[in-house]
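for the writeup, i need someone to sanity check this before i put it in the appendix. the sequnce is what the collaborator sent (i think, or maybe the updated version? ugh). structure was predicted straight from it, no edits. if anything looks off just tell me and ill rerun, i have time this weekend
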Amino acid sequence: MVDWVSLVVPFAYLGVLIGSLATFSHLYRARKASKAASLAPWFGPHLGRNIYLSLLHMEPAEGPKVPDSVLKAALMRRAVEDIHRLVEVRNSKQALQSLLQRGSVGDDLWQRFQRAEKEIEAELRDVVQEANAFSPGWGQTIFQSASEIAQNQLLQQRVAEIQAQASTEKAWWEKKRATIQADFMKELDGAQTKNSDDDAVLVEGGGPATTGAPQQQQQRPKSRDN
């Protein structure tokens, strides 16, 4: 005869153990998701997306319908901002992984970065869909045009920084040159004053020598008469 009591106890123990593990796993994932949602976003507000969505969903009572040309320009501006964010994510990933492996940053920062990666991927897909809704096939080329605009913006920003730096360096050099010139003139005035004092000493020292010469000339005739 089978002893059902001896079989029920192990199965009950396994059931309780599996239930506890499932409950713990569910609570852990929920807590992790809640913590990730409470973390500060990697990027700030997406101004280009907000402007585009505001224009796209503008109510008729708020004004006339927004022309498609304006919506396309707003979508392009949104795509340009996406390119800037995508470049930042790609440039930061390798350095952040290295810091994470060395323990220099915490898991919270890595979770923020991973969430930013997922957000930018979803954003790119949304922009492609919006572009294709305006013109079929535009979604395949919109980011190429946005990348060119983003590169031009970075180039203009770099040129502006160089010009500002050049103006600062020019002002510093003008001030430095004025200081050097003032110090040189001060040294020149000091040298001229010293030369004048030396000339005065020589003149005063040469007075007795000139007065002694006539006395010797006057004494010579007396020796001839003798």
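The CA atoms of residues 47 and 78 lie 8 Å apart. DSSP finds five helices and no strands in the chain.
thx in advance!!
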